[in-house]
Amino acid sequence: MKIFSKLMIATCFIYTIITQAQNNYPQNYFRNPLNIPMQLAANFGAVRTNHFHMGLDLRTNSQENLSVLAAADGYVSRIKVERYGFGNAIYITHPNGYTTVYAHLNKYFDQLDAYVKERQYKDEKWEQDITFQPGQFPVTKGQLIALSGNTGGSAGPHLHFEIRDTKTEECLNPLLFGFAIPDNVAPIISGLYWYDRRFSTYEPGANSVAVKKAGNAYTADVVRVNSPLISFAIKAVDKANKGFNLGVYQAELIMDGKSIYSFSIDKVSYDDTRYENGCIDYTKFTRDKISIQHLSVLPGMKLQNYSNPGLSGIINLQDNEVHQVEIILKDVKGNTSRLTTKVQLGTPVNKINPTGNMVQPNESKIITTQNAEISFSKNAFYDAVNFNAYEEQGSDINVISNTVVLHSPYIPIHDNYTIKIKPNRKLSREEKEKIVVLFDYGSDTDAVKGKWNGDWVEGQFNRLGTVRLVLDNTLPSVLSGWKEGSVVNSSSLRLKGSTKVGDITSFRAELDGKWLRFARVKNDFVYIFDEKCPKGSGLHTLKVTTTNTAGNTNVQTFTFQR
C-alpha cells in the first residue's frame, strides 16, 4: 500500500505539471491556421536530425495552396525566403506577447507578396529576411495571409506552425494553448534499454530489454545488470487519433516509489535545440534509425526547462535486492502509458579504463595527428569519448592531403570545432585559392572554402567523419530543359545546378541584361513567368553566372522565345 500511495502521488504530480503548463498559456486565443480540421503529421518535441521539432506540422491532405489564416490579430513582423529551412515563412506578432510562425508557404497574400517581390528586384537577391513595423501589414484573426506549400526543407506538402514568446523567441508547445485536436490514444512503448554508467553511454552502449504489452500496461522481465551504476532509456512514440508517429511529451522514471528523473517538452529555443543530441541515443538514431530517449542526464547536456534539475536518473545499486521500477509516459491530453519492471544487480563486471585521447564533457581538448590538429570547445561533447583520430593516404590526384579520420560519424558534436590540415605538397598561389575542405560523415558530404593559416588549411564543422583537402579547378554549371532558341510553352524556366565539389554558392540570372528572380529549389533554379517576360516578346537571352565553393565562376548563355 505504501508503494502504491507513492505512485499515486507521483501520478498526481505529473498531472499537476500538465495542468499548470496549460493554465500558464491563453486557452483558445489562437485559431486553427487552416480551414480544415487540425491533423498532426508531427508535434512539438519530436526527435529530428540534430534538433527537436519546434512546432506542429499540420496536414494539408497532401495538397498545396490551401488557405493559411492568421491565428489571431496582430501584424506581420517578419518574412523569410530561403532555400532550405522554412522556405517561405511569415511571422505574426500578437498583442498578448506571442508570435506565430507559418512556414513552407508557396505564396504570401497579394500586398505582402508584391512588397517582397519588389524588394527582391531592388536587392537583386532572391533570399530575404525582412522585418516590418506594426503599421505596415496589420492582420486580423482568420485573415488570409498565405497559401500552403512544400518549400524549403519540406519533404511533402504541409504547414509548419509555431508559437513563440515574442520577447525571448523561445518556441512554445502549441498543444498547450488549447487547440481542439482529438486525441484519446496513449503513447506506445516498444523498447527499454539500460546503460552501464561507469562508462560513457556511447561505449559499450545500449543493452536492450524486451517489452511486453498487457492490456493498457507494459511490462518487462527483471532487468539483471552487471554494473552498480546504470541508467534507463525508452523507445516510444505518441499517437494522435490519425495515426502519425509523434514525439513523447512527458516521461517520469520511478524507483521503489520515488521519482528519480522526469522530462517534459514545453519550450525550447533554437539556440538550444541541438541539445536534443544529448537527450537521445545518438548512435542508435543515426546508425540504426531508432529513436531512444534517455531517462537520465548526460554530463554535457545543458538544455534548459527540459528535465528536473534535481533528478539525474542515474541509479546506484548498493545491494543485490530486487528493486521496483515504473516508467510513466503522458501526452498533453493526459493519455497515459505505464511500463513496470524490476532491476537487480548481479555479479559486477570490472570496469576497464580506456586508453587513448579521452575527451570529457565540459573540457576543451586539442587532438593532433601527424598532419592535422583538431580543436574542440568545452561544449563539444555530451558524454565522454575515447577519441580515435588517424590519417589515411589517398590516390586521387586532386586530393592534396591525407584523409583525416575523426573517430566515428555516430558520435554527436554540439558546436563547431576547428580542424587544421597540412597539404601533402607545395602549392602555387593560384592553387591555394582553389582549396576546399571536404567533409564526409557517411550519409552526406559538406565542403567549405579553405582558410589558410600559415602552412595549414582550416575548416569548421559540427559533425564527425573524414576530412581531406581537395584542389578544385572544375566549373559549376546549370543545365536547361529546352533547346536553344525554342519556344517555351511551360509556366516556368527550370535550370538544374551541378558542381563536382561542394555547392553552388552564388547564382545570378539576367534576362536581356536585367536581373531576373529565380527561386532556388534544392539544387534547381526556377523562374515562374511574369510581367518581366511576357508572351510574344521575341527572342530572349538568359545569362547565368554561377560560383562554387572553391570560388570557380562560370558564365553560360541560353536563348528562348515565349
Automatic annotation (TrEMBL):
Record's signal peptide: 1-21
Positions of the M23ase beta-sheet core domain: 52-118, 132-167
Keywords, in A-Z order: Signal
Record's protein name: M23 family metallopeptidase
Key word RNA-binding present: no
InterPro entries documented for this protein: Cell_wall_metabolism_enzyme (IPR050570), Dup_hybrid_motif (IPR011055), M23ase_b-sheet_dom (IPR016047)
A Pfam family per the record: Peptidase_M23
The organism's place on the tree of life at top rank: Bacteria
UniProt keyword Manganese present: no
